[in-house]
Amino acid sequence: MILYELSAGSKNVSELCTALNIPQPSVSRHLKILRERGMVTTERRGTVVIYTLADVRLTQALDLLRAVMRDGLSKRAALVEAL
User: Fewer C-beta within 10 Å: the chain N or C terminus?
Assistant: First the structure.
């Protein structure tokens, strides 16, 4: 959800917490991992760190993976119904 939120524009931790209704420690922990993986970039503006999506294709990739998972679940559900 953080990646999708950042696809709409750069935000700081507080803005992400508000937009996603997630506690600050959780958002910060996830951002650290995303930063380490090169999925988000940071820019310091005074005391505030601004997070930006590193590549717009990330959300496209997420959408594709979600579609693959949805199709797989649909196929499994059809098999269960057939039994």
Answer: C
